[in-house]
Automatic annotation (TrEMBL):
It comes from the Bacteria. This is ABC transporter permease. Keywords: Cell membrane, Membrane, Transmembrane, Transmembrane helix, Transport. Residues 62-268 form the ABC transmembrane type-1 domain. Belongs to the binding-protein-dependent transport system permease family. CysTW subfamily. Pfam families: BPD_transp_1.
Length: 276
């Protein structure tokens, strides 16, 4: 019986090997080359490409990517909690409508959404005109870190909401009523009751948001321009502009390792908190 059950994992393992292990192994092999795969001549092996990742320019890009992704994740969680709570506590019809509204961004092309922000925050856009009427002289809000964060938050927010909804749905309203009867304020109820009980959903949503934000390309490329650099933009430039595939592969492996370490640390911390 166990042997038959084990056979059920064979197709999964084959897919994992074909679409995950083999591509990553190919990236590792390319990253260790001493010249681009487009070059003519012999190809040797080197670790210089990984050393470049930790040089000043590339290290700044990694730091900026982590920082902007963390800010976007924090803002996304702050906005998603009340929205997810309203969805969970709404009547069936209102819950369906709100869920559909949250799903709309997921069904819209990221390019369309980013160009919408481009028009809103760009030169002569509604946001710029409003600030000018308030006496704030500004020509454009694009090509700045805040504009990139706005785009990342809008892109990742639905994933945070849909991660929190199941976690909040498992919390009975009677628990909140009991906390209120014991004299807890709404903020205390959230901090001491709702937040700990929904920590699993928050962790899942934060990991999704951080992963999506840190690997985003379209948002920083259009809304940040050359003023804001993130890892995906540098990988794109190394591949299609500089034709430096080994450097791009090394940067890709660095991003993969970074996300893996952060995900492992977050899951470990969440498990410890749950055990306590």
């Amino acid at each position: 019986m166990r042997a038959r059950t084990g056979l059920l994992f064979v197709p999964y393992l084959l897919l994992l090997l074909a679409f995950l292990v083999v591509p990553i192994a190919g990236l590792v092999e390319i990253s260790a080359r001493n010249q681009s795969v487009t070059s003519i001549g012999g190809v040797g092996l080197t670790m210089a490409n990984y050393q470049r990742v930790f040089e000043g320019f590339y290290l700044d890009i990694i730091f900026d990517t982590v920082r902007l992704a963390a800010i976007a994740t924090l803002i996304g969680a702050t906005l998603a909690y009340p929205l997810a709570y309203v969805i969970v506590r709404s009547q069936p019809l209102a819950r369906t409508v709100l869920t559909c509204l949250v799903m709309v961004p997921l069904m819209t092309s990221v390019v369309v959404k980013v160009f919408g922000w481009f028009i809103l925050l760009g030169r002569g856009g509604p946001a710029v005109r409003m600030l000018q009427k308030l006496g704030i002289e500004v020509q454009t809000l694009l090509n700045t870190e805040p504009s990139v964060v706005v785009g990342l938050v809008e892109f990742a927010l639905p994933f945070m909401v849909f991660s929190l909804v199941p976690a909040l749905d498992r919390i009975s309203p009677a628990v909140e009523e009991a906390a209120a009867n014991l004299g807890a304020t709404p903020f205390q109820t959230f901090r001491l009751v709702i937040l700990p009980l929904s920590a699993s959903g928050l962790t899942s949503g934060a990991l999704l948001c951080f992963g999506i934000s840190s690997s985003a390309y379209v948002v920083p490329a259009i809304m940040g321009g050359h003023a804001v650099r993130m890892i995906a933009q540098q990988i794109y430039d190394d591949v299609l502009v500089a034709f430096d595939w080994p450097a791009a592969a090394a940067f890709s492996i660095a991003l993969l390792v970074l996300l893996s370490v952060l995900i492992f640390a977050a899951l470990r911390a969440s498990r410890r908190a749950t055990d306590v």
